[in-house]
Amino acid sequence: MKTTEFSSSSSPSDRRIGALLRHLTAGTDFPITDRLSSVFASPTSGVTGGSVFAHLVQAPEDPILGVTVAYNKDPSPIKLNLGVGAYRTEEGKPLVLNVVRKAEQQLINDRSRIKEYLPIVGLVEFNKLSAKLILGADSPAIRENRVTTVECLSGTGSLRVGGEFLAKHYHQKTIYITQPTWGNHPKIFTLAGLSVKTYRYYDPSTRGLNFQGLLEDLGAAPPGSIVLLHACAHNPTGVDPTIQQWEQIRQLMRSKGLMPFFDSAYQGFASGSLDTDAKPIRMFVADGGECLVAQSYAKNMGLYGERVGALSIVCKSADVAGRVESQLKLVIRPMYSSPPIHGASIVAVILRDRNLFNEWTLELKAMADRIISMRKQLFEALRARGTPGDWSHIIKQIGMFTFTGLNPAQVSFMTKEYHIYMTSDGRISMAGLSSKTVPHLADSIHAAVTKNV
Ligand code: PLA
């Protein structure tokens, strides 16, 4: 709070407060806000109409979640939300997985369950099972007790805790993120205290990976820099490196001592196989080096609003891992004290039980397959309409999203004329599409492209 803000305001009461502030600030180090709290809390400040928040401007909606806000306001019966990455059934309805319902029933039937606080690190069994899920049951790092895992608030919370930990304890404060990336990444890491830079990733002219640019940029990064890697199903482009390219990335990063920070928000959603999608991470762990992994169960278990995720830090020794965990607790405790119990308990029930686990993998595969089938249907629908341009990227891209190449004007045309909602960068969530809505989307893309919007 600066005194000048008050002295420049026009009303007499504000000027009085400004004078008072200047008076109180003079010659003291005692925080001015503490001494003034009683002034602002007095009823007269309300009576004179001056809110202490009056200077705030209306913030814009979030570029992704704001799409849903706009969609909800639209009364049109044909509206379609392809903004946020949330899985929908063929009927366009949100899906609660069968295994999740079964796990919840088990939890409810168990009368011995209590609601005490979890430890700061969360549900310990969930943490162990999550590490196994992402690193592999036979991971040497787990066997050697070199991995510390803490339950966090979904993928976002895991990234934030990891970011703050690195900002506090890692010698390099710069994190390189892909260009483009999920819109929340730069905000999360900046607020965590890291300095954010980008590396080339996507080539709009080929609608594929700019592998040369990626290698050059990571090659030019200062030694020790942190590099955020999308483990699979890159958001928003749907473009992933091949396994051979991952191997080259790994060699380059290890040779320069770059620190890998994996964001795994879509394990199982890319290929339909949990193990295949975790391969890039396991390659980095297999070489004995260190890395961070943020996991989310939002998409692959459909636990979006339960906010279940985990942060794992793979270290060189059990001794270091123990000390890392002790410091992670110091990051978490003042942030939210300890994580919620329900979602992590659901995940633990499913991961610990062989039958439920197998059933989960089938449901996950069904979701991944439905998305792939939507890709084929949309591609065919555009071909049938003779829509100008090469749309083969729709079937080549991987995961939940298609990065269509539509520009912001075309997106806004599709929203206005066809009530189709998507992010302004032209990303569409294939998981929000169904056989019934494909023709409507294809019509709108065709119109946007042919009308030279
Ligand atoms: N990392 C990536 C790459 C993501 O795409 C998302 C979610 C997350 C992390 C975080 O998800 P979580 O905190 O819910 O686990 N991205 C969504 C949703 C699906 C969002 O923007 O919040 C998206 O539509 O891009």
What do you see in this structure?
It catalyses: L-aspartate + 2-oxoglutarate = oxaloacetate + L-glutamate. Residues 78-445 form the Aminotransferase class I/classII large domain. With 453 residues, the protein is of the alpha/beta class. It has 2 domains: 62-94 and 366-448, Aspartate Aminotransferase, domain 1 (Alpha-Beta Complex), CATH 3.90.1150; 116-351, Type I PLP-dependent aspartate aminotransferase-like (Major domain) (Aspartate Aminotransferase, domain 2). The chain has helices at 3-7, 12-25, 32-41, 43-47, 65-73, 98-109, 124-135, 140-143, 154-169, 184-192, 211-220, 243-256, 274-286, 318-336, 342-352, 354-385, 393-396, 408-418, 438-450; strands at residues 80-81, 147-153, 174-179, 195-200, 202-203, 208-209, 226-230, 259-264, 291-296, 308-314, 401-403, 420-421, 427-429. The strands form 4 sheets. Strands 2-10-9-8-7-3-4 form a 7-stranded mixed sheet. A two-stranded parallel sheet has the order 1-12. The model is unreliable at 1-13 and 15-45 (pLDDT under 50). Bound molecules: ligand PLA.
Question: How would you briefly describe this protein structure?
Answer:
With 453 residues, this protein is of the alpha/beta class. Helix content is 49%, strand content 13%. It folds into two domains: 116 residues, Aspartate Aminotransferase, domain 1, CATH 3.90.1150; 236 residues, Type I PLP-dependent aspartate aminotransferase-like (Major domain) (Aspartate Aminotransferase, domain 2).
